[in-house]
Amino acid sequence: MMSAQIVPETSSAILRRSHNLAERFEAWRLKSSERLSRIDFAPNLAEAIGSRRWFRGLATFLGLSAASIAFWPGFAPLEAAPATRVNDSVRDEFRSQMIMPLALGGDSGRHMGATAAVTPLASAPERPQIELVATLAQGDSFGRMLQRAGIGSADAARVEALISRSVSLADIDPGTQVDITLGRRTAPNSPRPLSALDFRARFDLALSVQRGPDGNLSLERKPIRVDDTPLRIRGTVGSSLYRSMRAAGAPASAVQQYLKALGDQVNLDSAVRSTDTFDMIVDYRRAATGERQAGKLIYAGIDRAGSPKVQLMRWGSDGRFYEASGVGEQRAGLMRPVPGSIGSKYGPRRHPILGYVRMHGGMDFHASYGQPIVAVADARVASAGRAGGCGNAVKLQHAAGLATRYCHMSRMAVRAGQSVRRGQVIGYVGSTGLSTGPHLHYEMYRNGQRINPASVQYVTRAMLSGAQLQQFRSVLSQIKQVEAGAALAPLTPTASEARASEPVREIDKLDEAKKVG
């Protein structure tokens, strides 16, 4: 069954017009496509160069290049987000949360940044009391140290005057630490007053300066009980005398003194065995507060199987070591002026420069240029200067009519009339005078007559006698009774020291304050 649709006449005209427009646009599109397909916009520029088709392709290339350059993006950084406005409060908040060294201004772990709710104070309150430690530096004065610590000039001068009554300020050792307590300021920008000052003035004395209720500073001496029992150390020599003594607890300085004193009596390389027993006694001080202080070596001994014992004790103001018999001597003989080997001995020889045989009145030691030359024994400088074929020479006058001369020096380190000790540097090896190269020509004289230096075993002696010898032997017997290691035991505190070491309770402090009040 069919039905007819009735369309108004006006609607029919609109439909026909729209169909006509669509058909026209489609016809134009097809015609344009045909025309464009016939046009070659991108010909090969390598073919038909100079033709109309080639120039059309060049124009297309230039146009596309210009369009590409025109729309090319810039290299300016893109701003991802607007910059944060940082003021002082935001900056403080950042600083409080960052990880940064304190030396560069970091505040990590200290405080948070201030917010708008914080009200700034007109003036920050000060701590009522400051405790600090000041150290006396080398070459510094006690007063300057106090002023750098924050003590006013008036208080520093008063403290110096009080302390100088007990000890000399110049005798206070560098490195001494001073505990300082400063009180509250009396006025803004004024130095804090000194409340208390404590330090160890000597090994056996502590000083304390306190400000009393009347406002004046006063000094309190606190003597420290000290035990002077010397430290005795004994042990087996073993494979190394030095290492065995150090392992036994001997101070390094005392070991060096021991080896030097003993080396003047015996040959440490051949006369000491591993089974021998060393024995040394050192000055030692123990304080009741626990500090210990080692001093000089006062006794050096060694027990050798099948050989006499060596017992040496320091005696006299010059610090010389004496044997138990009261004799102080150097059995090792003369020191070598230089450590080099002997090149030419004493006797006739052909002179290397003059070319004929003549008497060689000394010994030549091989040595390098500038090597130190030492005195073979204690002496007085008889002459020092130019000496003909000897070049720069120094002559020393020893005891018992002996004299020595050292030739061909490059430089002299002593002058005539000067006293020198055994082992002291008197000059330096050279090649002055009649010399073919740097070496030392060493001569020896007895009563003005030249002798062979190798024939002399020079021994110096210092004898004790009478009351001095008796006193020496008495002191030696006393120190030899000291038990080994006895000085290492801690001191037994007295009743007063035990009470002073007990901690003070806060309630006791309140009771004391009430009594004072």
UniProtKB/TrEMBL annotation:
This is M23 family metallopeptidase. The keyword Ligase does not apply. Residues 490-517 are annotated as: Disordered. Residues 499-517 have a biased composition (Basic and acidic residues). The lineage of its organism: Bacteria, Pseudomonadati, Pseudomonadota, Alphaproteobacteria, Sphingomonadales. CDD domains: M23_peptidase. GO terms for molecular function: metalloendopeptidase activity. Residues 358-453 form the M23ase beta-sheet core domain.
